[in-house]
Amino acid sequence: MDKYYLIKTYGCQMNIHESEKLAGMLISLGFKPTDDEEKANVIVFNTCCIRDGAEQKIYAHIGALKGLKKRKPNLIVAICGCMAQVKSRPETIKKKFPFVNIIFGTHNLNEFKEYLIRFEKDRKYICEIWDEAKYLDEHVDTYRTSKNNAWINISYGCNNFCTYCIVPYVRGRERSRAFEDIILECKNAIDEGYKYITLLGQNVNSYGNDINDGKTTFARLLREISHLDGDFRLKFMTSHPKDLTEEVIDVIASEDKIAKVIHLPIQSGNNRILNSMNRRYTREHYLDLIKLIRTKIPNCYISTDIIVGFPGETEEEFLDTYNLINDVRYDGVFAFMYSKREGTVAASMPGHHDIATKRDRVNRLLSLSKEIIKEKNKNSIGDDYNIIINDYNATKNEYYATTDSGKSITIVNCNKTLNINNFYTAEITEYKNGKLYAKIK
Ligand code: 5AD
Ligand code: SF4
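A: This is the predicted complex of the input protein with iron/sulfur cluster.
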């Protein structure tokens, strides 16, 4: 009889990719994917703990399985990922949801296959959390789920300890993967036909700092990957402004295969708050970087992350962030309300804000950035983009495409046949009802 798995993924791209590794393990044990909870023999929650909202949502979703598990006692429920790695969470999960069968953390993700085999044999509750990674997770059969994008880790963990952030506590110190292993994985993904290679690290710019041989740097990695044969585009995330060098910007500018897309979280536009966040750059340094990027890479798509309502943030300090967004005119803004994470430095700082203040600030930022993006879209008529074709509607003769940054674009009245999953250059012709239209060049 066929066996099925369902993985519910929460959080960032790192987690999305780790779910592909979990899927690879399940497939190697003979499981098949399903979206149907009723059909699943194993349900895995790959969790996130970056903000309290994420955790509450996950608790609600696990709780919703209670009835199903009663009807199907053989269903295996596993919880893993960042939330499982937080101190005392496994006990809380087990107490709230006694039907959970397997809990494991971020450092022993690769052991999931062993845990599952063991549980299927003796059906005894497993809870294993490691304090640190014992190895880098090489040689995992990844089952890639994104149509044309291959996520590829270049490093794990983070050394930065931004005072609000729980990531260094649940993912450990930064470990860089070997240069040659990354190149090999990129080569394989390109040979398999993936059109986008997206390199993943909490701070891609510090890649190689722990290898310390003077030549393992992010700039060299980008250059070597972009020199590989094949028709692909290279992307990466996330960049920390304190470590983004001019050399890296030059490589992005000069290599055609590197997408002109940079996600550069600023978090706050106020120097006192940046210092209190332990970000280790100033507003001025950040703005210099933006200037450098825009000079060397005209039309570069730049997005950012912002936290509003950090402990002690005054209205004036918030306005520094607001005005910076107004000046930089980002192509994408991810704004979050500060969420207190137990055990972080900021959790015990004075001046925590109420939810109303944080909501008001986040809403003001988001509506500003929405206006700016609308304006930029309007002004993009005549601009050229590298696009990939995702779909075709024969009745309407419309192709649906995305730019390297992920913007949706409709190609209308095209008089030549375009191939799905191929790159083309398109010129924006119209912006109407919030949609961009383009013609193929
Ligand atoms: N509260 C709110 N947002 C946070 N982020 C990280 N930690 C917190 C927190 N405690 C945001 C940052 C980061 C993004 C991934 O999540 O902006 O860049
Ligand atoms: Fe968290 Fe800062 Fe590390 Fe990003 S760089 S993961 S925000 S500690």
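The radius of gyration is 23 Å. DSSP finds 14 helices and 19 strands in the chain.
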